Amino acid sequence: MPENNNWTVVCPCCEAAIIVDAQTGIIISHQEKVKPLASFEEMAKEMERQKQTRDQVFSQELGSVKDRERLLEEKFREAMKRAEKDKDKDKPFVNPLDYD
Prior knowledge:
Helices cover 47% and strands 15% of the residues. By secondary structure, it is an alpha+beta fold. The chain has two domains: 1-31, no CATH class; 39-87.
């Protein structure tokens, strides 16, 4: 009769139980930790907190997108100035891969 060589690993983060076959290393099953049900008021507070977090992240991203356009325009202008300054150089472009 074959022996039952299974390992039970408990995740330190979420405390889920993972059962792994010792011979093949394949995960046989996964059982999440049972969470106690919260009261309706606690769930409503959590939903409100999540909404505030989403709104805050959205406003930050919106601000960064607006600022990003300005930064890209500045970088483009700087690159154009450098291109105009380097335009006077009459060196032909040399591909670094052509040095074989």
